[in-house]
Design a protein that fits this description.
signal; six-stranded mixed sheet
């Protein structure tokens, strides 16, 4: 990232006027990481030193901030020799010392061309037209060396370079893969060794921590309130190369450390959906990480020690567990478990943790009147409430690491059936291997994604099909009549009636081709959506 830098001379007689000009241009042209040399000309050229000239060095950091920490600038000219070796001329000045003509520690080093530093016993000094090699160094930053030609002109800033920090923390991610903003508030990073300067900055477009670490073998600690601190391996600090660190960000930095663990994890036995809260007044919403675990970033200032589980459909509410309070960022992750009871009235919930669809309640016939009691009218039947993806905790296919059109199977479970999924959270069954063979573009069984039964059961199985190959508007319901056999029944209701009976109706309709449509035998029409069987293995 180092570019050539140019040096300029400025006439003392026009110093006041041109200094204002340079200050304006310095603001206008300041960019990422700049070593700049500037001046105005008073001589006609040649190598003779004009006694009213100055040489300027402007030293910026990689985040476009003047490095006002007393940098040391060395230079040589008159033959292109490197700094520190024998040459026609050599000189050095530290920012803010008496040799710095402005006497300020401001990241800009100003040397009078007639000074001993520029016109010493080693030679005739530096002047316009000569080649120059310069370097800048300061503990905590990477030293820079560059070569250019001194331009005898009143022009503005031209070439720029940077002075990198010795340590850059590129990012921090929590254990579910979400990025925590590294700004010193949401997430932070510190170095255990000696630090000359440090800063959080999003100058590069992403918040990072920049550290001028000047001692070797220290470690970087990454942390965030509600998470477990993570400490890096020991760093090698060098004046010739920057050392980078990240915590779970996968930036291919020198040290790729693991992500931060949540302070608390709550497991709900046998359940993968619902919600968990923890912390003071149960104000912390925990993230569902799948497999029945919720992750809670409870701040250290919270003293509450209760976690509560609630099922979204109301089947289970206010189930709690207690946990141990964490008091420091270095405390280990705290785990607790909530074990829901068996549902009232017997039975059980599914292994995937979903509450099954509410079954239909049969009608109660009317009771005729007797001499002692009046007649009791009949009670109408209450239809079953079908399960929906939302009721099972479905958010998106991306959250399940899937996309529309993926073919999935939980091969190791008691249901090895093959399904294809849609964006709405529904899946359709390939009832027979022959049917799967009608869709060669899916790539066959070698392209089936193996998934867990939990992921599979988060999506609801639909038995609604339409022959899209012939653009037939009729929607059919499939009835499984055997292990690998079935019938199609036309759902003979209008679209408005279908939606009135099931608001998710058209989200459940899957396209099939002519081969599959013709494979099925056809059964009697259905006169309502409720007649479409719900498939279960």
């Amino acid at each position: 990232m180092l570019s050539g830098a140019s040096m300029f001379f400025m006439d003392k007689a026009t110093d006041s006027k041109k200094t204002s000009k340079w200050s304006f241009l310095g603001v206008l042209f300041a960019v990422l990481a700049a070593f700049l040399f500037f001046s105005g000309s008073a001589s006609a050229g040649g190598n003779a030193i004009d006694t009213a000239d100055y040489i300027y060095f402007r030293i910026d950091t990689e985040i476009n901030v003047l490095n006002d920490k007393s940098v040391l600038v060395k230079w040589s000219c008159g033959g292109g020799a490197t700094s520190g070796s024998l040459s026609i001329y050599q000189g050095s000045v530290t920012d803010g010392t008496s040799s710095d003509s402005d006497g300020l520690v401001n990241g800009i080093v100003q040397i009078a061309s007639q000074s001993l530093e520029n016109a010493g016993a080693n030679g005739s000094g530096c002047d316009g037209g000569e080649s120059i090699t310069a370097s800048v160094s300061l503990g905590g930053w990477v030293s820079r060396t560059w070569a250019s030609s001194i331009t005898d002109t009143a022009g503005g800033f031209i070439n720029r370079a940077s002075m990198d920090y010795t340590i850059v923390v590129n990012g921090i991610v929590e254990q579910l893969g979400n990025t925590l903003t590294l700004n010193g508030t949401t997430a932070s990073a510190t170095y255990s060794g000696t630090v000359a300067s440090q800063s959080y900055s999003n100058y590069s477009g992403t918040y990072k921590k920049y550290i001028a670490g000047s001692t070797d073998a220290g470690t970087v600690k990454g942390g965030a309130d509600g998470y477990v601190n993570r400490t890096s391996s020991a760093l090698t600090i060098s004046a010739t190369a920057s050392q980078s660190v990240d915590f779970g960000a996968s930036t291919d930095s020198d040290l790729d450390e693991s992500s931060l663990l949540f302070g608390h994890v709550v497991t709900v036995s046998g359940y993968t959906n619902g919600s968990v809260r923890a912390g003071d007044s149960l104000s912390i919403v925990c993230s569902n990480g799948g497999a029945g675990s919720w992750y809670c970033p409870v701040p250290l200032a919270h003293t509450g020690t209760t976690a509560e589980y609630s099922y979204p459909s109301g089947g289970i509410t206010s189930l709690t567990a207690t946990y141990t309070d964490r008091t420091t960022g270095g405390d280990a992750q705290v785990a607790s478990t909530i074990t829901p009871p068996t549902p009232s009235g017997g039975g059980s919930y599914s292994e995937s943790g979903t509450v099954p669809a509410t079954p239909a309640t049969p009608a109660v016939p009317a009771t005729p009147a007797t001499e002692e009691t009046p007649a009791v009218p009949a009670t109408p039947a209450i239809p079953a409430t079908p399960a929906t993806p939302a009721s099972r905790g479905f958010v998106s296919l991306a959250a399940l690491n899937l996309k529309e059109g993926d073919v999935v199977s939980a091969a190791g479970s008691d249901d090895p059936d093959v399904y294809i999924v849609n964006d709405w959270g529904y899946k359709r069954l390939f009832l027979n291997p022959a049917i799967f063979g009608f869709y060669g573009h899916l790539g066959g069984f070698n392209r089936v994604k193996n998934t867990s039964s939990t992921v599979r059961d988060t999506m609801v199985t639909s038995g609604l099909f339409r022959n899209c190959e012939t653009n037939d508007a009729k929607v059919y319901g499939v009835e499984a009549t055997g292990e690998d056999a079935g019938l199609l029944h036309w759902v003979n209701v209008s679209g408005d009636e279908a939606v009135a009976q099931d608001s998710e109706f058209f989200k459940k309709v899957f396209c099939i081709n002519g081969n599959e449509f013709n494979w099925y035998s056809k059964g009697a029409d259905y006169s309502s959506v409720g007649q479409v069987p719900a498939y279960s293995r």
